[in-house]
Amino acid sequence: MRFKVGNALILAVHYGSKVLFEKAVVPAMNAKAPIEVKRFEKESKGTLISTEGGGEATSCLKGMSMVQVSGIQSLNVASSILNTLAEAFADDPIAVAPVFRNAMSIITNESRSDKVSEIVGNTGRGIKVEVRKGLSLVSLVGKRFRLSQVSDALRRASIEPMAILTTPSGITTCSIVGETDTDTSIRALHEALLAS
Fold first, then answer.
1. CA-to-CA dists, residue 192 to 41, 102, 180, angstroms
2. Which of 48, 100, 154, 194 has its CA 20 to 30 A from that of 24?
3. Spatial strand order in the sheet of 57-70
4. 37-46 pLDDT per residue, tens
């Protein structure tokens, strides 16, 4: 990977860890210098991180799980589940797909999905919990994108997402896909919505 900070070019190699660490960005932020991230293998538009305008990009988190909860008898029970999870994971929030009738989906990383499942299962009678592992959270950042565009782009690539949700800010649309479909999903979203 290549990072361009202001006029300086920084080279880095990605071996399964974060490519750009948060603390490395602080000096550039303080100097209001843009950071440009590009691939080594081929020329690409890349990603520009700056204070100017609204950015657009794709990203992903692998090793995710979806904890599917059903049998929620009331909004009070749903509220109790969410409050208990917020307390248990105060430093590291989790994503929750909207409550639909008597069910909700909780997106978390695999390392804590068993703990989430246990907490939810102890919240009330009649609660059923099913955990699906081996998933990825693929995100598309940009205000101009709609859920239908993301859904269409993935389906054209023969990917059936398990869930698609938008963050409250409306800036990020997240898709839950099988981990084996991660790269194809990112490529499909990039080609359909960012490359044009």
1. 21, 35, 20
2. 194
3. 95-96, 103-109, 57-70, 128-141, 172-178, 163-166
4. 766 666 666 6
What is the phi/psi pair of residue 145, to 5°?
-90, 145
- Does 148 share its domain with 117? no
Total residue count of the chain as it appears in this document: 196
- Are 122 and 150 contained in the same domain? no
- DSSP state letter for 1: -
> 126 and 142 in one domain?
no
Strand partners, 58: 140
CATH number at residue 71: 3.30.70.100
> pLDDT tens digits, residue range 91-138?
776 777 666 778 888 888 899 999 999 999 888 788 999 999 999 999
Residue 128 token pair:
């059923």
Is pLDDT of 2 > 80? no
Where are the alpha helices (H) located in the chain, listed in sequence order?
A: 22-30, 75-88, 110-121, 147-156, 182-189
CATH code (residue 174) = 3.30.70.260
Share of the chain above pLDDT 90, in %: 32
